[in-house]
From TrEMBL:
The lineage of its organism: Eukaryota, Metazoa, Chordata, Craniata, Vertebrata. This is FGGY carbohydrate kinase domain-containing protein isoform X6. The keyword Kinase applies. The keyword Repressor does not apply. SUPFAM superfamilies: Actin-like ATPase domain. It holds the Pfam family FGGY_C. Transmembrane segments: none annotated.
Amino acid sequence: MGISKNPIFVPGVWGPYFSAMVPGFWLNEGGQSITGKLIDHMVQGHAAFPELQAKATARGQSVYAYLNSHLDLIKKAQPVGFLTVDLHVWPDFHGNRSPLADLTLKGMVTGLKLSQDLDDLAILYLATVQAIAFGTRLIIEAMESAGHSISTLFLCGGLSKNPLFVQMHADITGLPVVLSQEVESVLVGAAVLGACASGDFASVQEAMAKMSKVGKVVFPRHEDKRYYDKKYQVFLKLVEHQKEYAAIMKGD
């Protein structure tokens, strides 16, 4: 969600809508379809999922908290993101919403091996989280090309509670990620509107300033930039190749 003082038309991104989110500003909305469900699909469909479930339950953790700790265990001395050097995912298992706006696109995974152990599951999970972050980077680039200026990401919702998801977004976009002090920040938004409706604040902007607080800022690891730039090149090649495959199959 990006706001601007003047309307900006971004190909493949919804909007601009006037006063849709913040009164007096134009809103563009670029999203990816069912990202949380995609992560569930990749994790739950893996042969090692029953083992993961049993170990997470024994430790009293969610499967994702367990996977995050397992990744820290197997990364050894390297940054955790480098575990996917040979594994790449294109995340449009349900078509692309933004910025390509192509419902015919499919998901892709390259770099699979015969192994089906917990390490393999953890790395596939990581590659999927990274793919979603690369999708965010693609949307940001489309919005900036059209005239938006984006220097910070604000994350809310269920996936923002996952520290790996947040850090990968920071590292892959190269932008700091701001998290709300109130974890259920969507409820704060409802309260902001209620406070305006009751007359406690004169404007949405005033209510936002008084009722919302920054909880944490996650900064990108700039020393890893070259690695993620290379993975982003592969990411873009995946969809380019998928379109070539479709053209071959449709040809005479």
